[in-house]
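Entry 14. Ran structure prediction on the chain below.
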Amino acid sequence: MEIFRIIINIFIVCVGLPVNCLAICGLYRLIRSDMVVPIYIINLLIADLLQVVSRPLYIASDYENFSEVLLFFGVSASVWFMVCIALERYLVVAHPLWYRYRRSVRHAALISAGVWLLALLLTVPIMLRFFWNFDPFTARLISIPNVFLLPFPLLVFFYLGTRRVIIRTHSIQDEEKKRILCMLALVLGTYTVFFLPFGIMSLLVSCSANWALVRFA
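Output, structure tokens:
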């Protein structure tokens, strides 16, 4: 079982590393003063790279705790950059005039820096848990809901709000409507399938374990 896990991690590194690097280089060329979505996608791919890099560190037992911290940091950033992408698409459709005069590469860069800072703050309890014997239940209770649960209602709101507005709008071409809705559906579907179940299960397991400790203490 351990060998199988090592093989999977090596495969993820060998495939994910070059693919993410090529995607980042390709998207970097698309950045213009009025086009900020590639900035969020590039940061999303960088967050994915952090998750890929954490794989070989996890194989080395000496760096197992550090790899989990790096993995959680990458996942936190990935999830909240998904929210940024969904928010940007929602504003383009629902508030086009307001957003037209406020979107810029500078603002997108500042928001991206804020997301990285948020991801770091959400990772701090996990770091304290591994390196300073912080209570594991408290660490999970602080970090997991903000990473795996809170973004879900936001993504649903942005998707439904965008869909409601875009159906009634005639100024946007049908092909552009489909592209926007497909992007939001992909973001929401990816989060729902890969992140939400893990967050719910982790929180339930942590609560059950903590309740058992309290009960038999």
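The radius of gyration is 19 Å. Will compare against last week's run tomorrow.
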